[in-house]
Amino acid sequence: MKRLGKATAAAGVAATLALTGCSGQSLEGDGDKAQGTITLKVAFWGDMGLDKLKAQYEAAHPNIKIVLNSGEYNAQHEDLQKKIVAGTGAPDISAIDEGFIVQFRSQADKFVNFMDKGGAEYESKYLPWKWQESMSTDGKQIGLGTDVGGLAMCYRSDLFKAAGLPTDRDAVSKLWNNWDDFINVGKQYTAKTHKKFVDSGTNMFNPVLAQQPVGFFDTGEKLQMDGGPKVAFDVSMKALDAGISANLASFQPNWDQGFKKDQFAVLACPAWMLGHIQDTAPDQAGKWDIASIPGGGGNWGGSWWTIPAQGKNIDAAADFVKWMVAPEQQIEVFKTVGNLPSQPALYKDPAVLDYKKEFMSNAPTGQIFAATAENLKPQYLGKKAGPTRVAVENVITQVQEGKLKSADAWAVAVKEAEKAANS
Amino acid sequence: MTTFVNRAPQDTRGSWKTYLGLTAVLLVSAFPVYWMFVIASSTDAAVSQIPPSVIPGSQLFKNLNEVFTMQEVYFTASLINSVIVSTVITAATLFFCSLAGFAFAKLRFPARNALMFVVILTLTVPNQLGVVALYILMGKLGWNGTLLAVIAPGLVSAFGVFYMRQFIAHAVPDELVESARIDGAMTMRVYFSIVLPAIRPALAVLGLLTFVMAWNDFQWPLITLNGTDFPTSMVALSDLASGNYVIYRRVLAGAFAATVPLIILLLIGGRQIVRGIMEGAVKN
Amino acid sequence: MSLTQLRPSPQHAAPPPKQSRAKLLLYRFDTKATPYVFIAPFFVLFAIFGLFPIVYNAVVSLRTWKLDEPDKDGWAGFANFTKLLTDSDFWNALYNTFGIFVLSTVPQLLLALIIANLLNRKLRGQSFWRIGILLPYLTPVVASTLVFSVFFARDNGMANWFLSLVGYGQEQPLDWRAEKWSSWIAIATMVNWKWIGYNALLYLSAMQTIPKDVYEAAAVDGAGPWRQLWRITVPMIQPVVVFTVILSTIGGLQLFNEPMMFDQNPQSATGGSAHQFQTIAQLIYKVGWKDLNLGYAAAMSWALFLIILIVAGINAQLTKRIGGDR
């Protein structure tokens, strides 16, 4: 009932606003809070474990009100981009993911430069590549890192058991030292169960690419298809030819259904994926476990907190961001949703090292992911890495749809990638 | 033998073929809506069942309860906001568009045809990029994040002007307008005493279509109202559907809740529309 | 403009004699100015909220404006427009847009006519039928696209289940998104479903204004119900038919939501793995917000604007010609 009261009041206020033409900003200023109250809008996607932190921060800072706005991953980034173009309306603080950081760091003057806010002292705390990725070419730091996505391989121990495969996480890790081994295990699994092993060819391509020293672009922004992309593309084609892929597009309804219907038995897992598995298939607690990924460490995703320069309270926002990336809060977030911090000092912290994830059969996720994050080779992300990735993924999908033979696919992929890189 | 039809269709009784055809149409029209209700009242598993589940489950109120109590979604408020937005837009559209439609159909003035052409032109502007310009404009006015930003651009519609012009041109006899003018009536009085009564069926149709369009609009409201506490029902619905993982029963329960007001409106107004159309026909 | 068969209204009759001078002035003001007062609200509101974005777009289309290369901003002349001519993505999207447009508009309007004709009878439960056909139009897009994406799913989809009942696709279920023909059909189905009832209602409201004596006179020719529809009803409601043709041309060529939500990976806006169902509106969105090339996207929207204008004009003329010959 209390909820209804608040909601109705909000509608009434909305009606008043519509009639008087006030802006949303002034309403919050007129609220029942003490004068000088500052409202900070924080935009992000999914669950970043902020609910408890918000209450804690507000209690300690009575003049600050935090408004959390969680939306869909792509939509939130796009909304931020539109509002930066418009020059108004951006949130006070916005999370930006690795997939979009290049796009926004090339608009660095639209963001608060953390170097002007005492950010220099943070450089030594972060993984060096994490610090570099959010920095513009002229040395402006647009964000402070939250998490990184060190890679591991999640697997369904119950399905492995049914297929006569080992289920212990160390034994599973030993099954695949490289991706060829991995595909062979997949063939065994599929032969035995007549079910598919991996979710899609693109989810083979992406982790393998993340493991390469050079991705789509070298540091001179030149497209390098014959290096890392070729290796990753070949692995994905091998997997498709072996017939072990369920061909489900990630993060789409069919994929979500695929979890529930046991349509695949393994999933390349950055730390942040754990929360997603848990949300999608809550009744599969204890059926998932984590092994190491073939081919060594790599990074997939991970985010930064940024402050759009158009905001009115950038100092208060900077204080809040610094508080959020402080060790206590980072550990709190890790425990709540599993996001792995990007400050290596925390990888030695007992709170991280001793943590076991109940949902994943009590796997020591802290240890596993900390190890992958420390070992990985950083990779330069080119300006057009985003559209190029989509273009190559589409070619893999064409093979999955049977429109393109795997033998002919590479030439098409190169052509499409060049087009995307020059768009 | 040739069938002779000497009656207007509206005086002809529907044959069994008519009913058969209409039943088929109704089944196809209603099935997705019905299925939405089925999922809205079921558990998560129902959505991908084969053969498809067609019997409503028992969870409707549980799912609705989840929708109305979701944090940061403000579903109840959003329904009220949508009523405000749609009502204001509909009233304004009916008034402004019938005025303009009357002028274009029955009044003579220089540049009339050129201006009518401009009205139609405005319909053809693609809006994938216009939103940024509109957002900048609303920012200058200080309206972003308020219902005013959603209402203001919807107050008139080129569709409405065009529809009203077409209807008035045929439904209001020139002689009637002329004779009123000879009696010395001002144009405004002609509008209120002759035009308005004659176009009631068209007003009912346009009103309904406009209300529904305003209610279901989401692209622009999503941009200007994102992250505020004053969503319209479609913005709240996108919030429901915006997780990394879509919970169908919850989204469709929300969609169901957002559609019910329209169905009620249709049930109340539908009889008026049908009656209005018949009256309009008799007048001719 | 001659989109309709509007008869020219007679010039206002001369003012009645023996009016006072004040009244005469008032009268002259009324005839000269009132029409403009009546259309003013539309044009004023349009100028504020409609014109500004168009002009803004026109300016942007002449500039180089890439969000990820701010240092290259500047005037581009017509470079963005000349780039269009050789852009295979643009021509592919144009082809897709027209394909889906034909598959959706033609059945949509024909079925709407037939349904309106069925509804234009003495029926039991008249309101029930008339209300029923509007259900698709009432359904929020978020809900209907979710329902249709489940309906056309490759695995466990309802459409494939129906196909399997008639013995098709037992081995390998049809992947609706994979090919041009199947994806076009699926998208056109969604469009048709949503708009048939809406157009039927517009037709019905026009049919009701046809004087009954027109039909009585035509009975002498021995017209059956089918011929009655095509020879009497359709020509009589021709202005509304032209109107709906223009409307669905505009809507069809701007098609965005359906292909967008139909995509496996909606946010990429690529319209399928090989752009098999990418429409122009979708391409504009991709170029603007994914490739971050706002100048080029603006040029594309202007090109789309011109294409719609031409096609709507041609369609309106065609419809009139066909209607007039009958």
General description of the model:
Chain C: Pfam families: BPD_transp_1 (PF00528). Chain C: This is Carbohydrate ABC transporter permease. Chain C: Belongs to the binding-protein-dependent transport system permease family. The complex is a heterotrimer of chains A (423), B (284) and C (326). Chain A is of the alpha+beta class. Chain A has 2 domains: 32-148 and 302-353, D-Maltodextrin-Binding Protein, domain 2; 151-299 and 367-421, Periplasmic binding protein-like II (D-Maltodextrin-Binding Protein, domain 2, 3-Layer(aba) Sandwich), CATH 3.40.190.10. In chain A, 48% of the residues lie in helices and 11% in strands. In chain A, the strands form 3 sheets. Chain A has a 5-stranded mixed sheet. Chain A has a 3-stranded antiparallel sheet with strand order 7-6-8. In chain A, helix 10 (202-211) runs antiparallel to helix 11 and helix 18 (385-400) packs antiparallel against helix 19 (406-421). Chain A starts with a helix and ends with a helix. Residues 1-34 of chain A have low confidence and may be disordered. Chain B has 284 residues and is mainly α. Chain B has 2 domains: 10-58, no CATH class; 60-283, MetI-like fold (Orthogonal Bundle). In chain B, 70% of the residues lie in helices and 0% in strands. The longest helix of chain B is centred in the C-terminal third of the chain and has 36 residues, at 248-283. Chain B starts with 15 loop residues before the first helix and ends with a helix. With 326 residues, chain C is an all-alpha fold. Chain C is built from 14 helices and 2 strands. Chain C has a two-stranded antiparallel sheet. The chains are: A alpha+beta (423), B mainly alpha (284), C mainly alpha (326). At the B-C interface, helix 1, helix 3, helix 4, helix 5 and helix 7 of B face helix 1, helix 3, helix 4, helix 5 and helix 6 of C.
